[in-house]
Amino acid sequence: MKRRSVELLLALSVFSLACDGAVSEVQVGGDPDLSRYFITPDLCADTFGPDCRSLRLGDDHVTTTSPARGKLYACSPGNPNAPGSQADRITWIDWAAGTWNLLSKPFLPRGAFAPEPGTIRVSESGSVRTITINNLPVDLRIGDWPMTQYPDLSAIDRNPGVPSPGSYTFNLPMNPTVGAIPACTSLGAIGVTLNGVILYNAMDGRGDDAVAHEIVDEFGGHPAMTDYHYHYLPERLDAAPMPDGHSGLVGYIRDGFGLYGYSGVGGRELSNADLDECHGHEHAPLGYHYHATIEYPYTVGCYRGTPAAALLTPLAFPVAIAGTAASVKVDQTALVSMIRHHRQALDLVALVPDRSDRPEVIEMAVRMQIAQTEEIHLMRRWLESGHSDIGGDLLVTHDGIHDIPGMISDARMRRLRDASGPEFDRLFLESMVEHHEGAIVMARVILDRVGSVGTTPEAAWLLRHIDAEQAMEVQRMRGMLARGG
Ligand SMILES: [Zn+2]
Ligand SMILES: [Zn+2]
Q: What's the whole-model pTM score?
């Protein structure tokens, strides 16, 4: 398909040459000179690590079944219809060779755009490290968004986004442990940098290599609507090496393990061959940690530990929810159903501590309890911020739960209450898989429906978030069921 587009473009330029006899400056192929947008990272100057002129294109290195070195283990494949770059206008990818050249790729330059300063707050309490950011760069380095001001660039990548503040909170385990099996990564935040900006995995919405395909600014980030993010580690953030030359800490991944820069012990730039399938390794004094590389998958390939929930509170929500009556109505129905569904998950999770002896089940239950409680708070706040025509009592009753897919029957709840040990674990995991799958169905059905009615982007965001998070957890639980007690 990509080749056909290029052929079409060539045919069109030949056609215009043929028809317009007076033309002397027709650009055959139509490629503007992009060289003023090129950058030359120091990483590309040394002889260690991957060659920036022929980096492996990640498009065909996604796996959705099991992790593998050099691949991105994604919970679901991309959506080919998602917005993204125009493949036929990309000049820096060698499609036949499956490589791309970072040195001939354009980056959005700096300019007048100056959003408010980035903030990051890190606090530690008990065994939890809480990181709160406004998702703008602490070092103030950001490109001149929106890119639509640069027609040469927006002809390639139509991204109309403008970064704006959003409050993200990560509650991460301070002493993460390596899990029995690695977990897949989903779209959205997979971690946070100490520069106060979130990290996404290496994939764009289509499932392609985001760093190779999408245009980012010369500081390494770009917005998804208003959410600024990095798909790889901006080189300047790797500026504080440890005494032995090993890169310093640059961020945290959602399982609590640290992300370090490009260099291993001795200051030598790393490549995938030095790292495991999750893109990390273990050595003193750091224990297990991830590293950035300038080759796909750039930051992490999978989660070595158990990913914690990342929560986004769009600051603009109270304004945004004052939309049309129809969209507010749909949002409220969606949120009320989802709150009821989450409440039952909390009821299920509450049974675990007294009945299970399996550490990974107990650990997952704790994490679900935190995530679902916070999501309920978030959804309630959103509901209360709208001019609700739904009475407050509806939020606390369990009426009408049969309309909500995946809800667990009273009989099953009784069986769960009476069970213990391996029998409980199996019943619990089976029930929770069904329950989560119900939430995913509900989120998708609602998204389909609001898609035509029109909804607030925040509610749609939450539903997509639930869809992605719960799909990831379902996969983990299926793994636990398969391994038995
Ligand atoms: Zn992106
Ligand atoms: Zn290391």
A: 0.66
